[in-house]
Amino acid sequence: MELDLNVRPIVLIYFSKTASTDDIQYILYGLEEEKIPFVIEQKDFPTATEAAYAAANTSSLNVGIGYVNNEAALHYKNLAPETPYQSIQRVVTCPPLILKSFGGNAARLVKGVPFKSIDPMEVKI
Fold first, then answer.
1. Is residue 94 within 8 Å of 43, Cβ to Cβ?
2. Cβ-count burial of 121 within 10 angstroms (0-12 exposed, 13-18 middle, 19+ buried)?
3. Helices assigned H by DSSP within the chain
4. Cβ atoms within 10 A of the Cβ of 110, count?
5. What is the pTM of this model?
6. What is the pLDDT of residue 123?
7. pLDDT of the residue at 124
8. CATH C-level class of 11-111
9. What is the bridge-based pairing of β-strands 63-68 and 11-15?
10. Distance CA 14, CA 47 (A)
11. CA-to-CA distance for 21 and 19, rounded, in angstroms?
12. Low-confidence ranges of the chain (pLDDT < 50)
């Protein structure tokens, strides 16, 4: 097997063509804070879980995020397609700190370090 040095290490984010990157801006801040590179692409998928799974299978880091119909999902390539690591409903009304932790968790999945809590009952807002 030959090593391809042209492949960039990134977390891939697929979001629907009807969505706005403003909706997931705090998720992106979480990735940036953990210093993990990412690429955003608009693609249509029926669910966030399917988008995240496709992104994880395409990502060089095996981690993907999907955003469809106001839902975000975090997936890893080796998980079952219907079982994301984490998901958030109603992203637009979700507290920014939770969204930022969600993005940070995508980076932490890459790094192999413990996740931050995204449970609203555990996060100080």
1. no
2. exposed
3. 25-33, 48-58, 96-111
4. 20
5. 0.89
6. 45
7. 46
8. alpha beta
9. parallel
10. 11
11. 7
12. 123-125
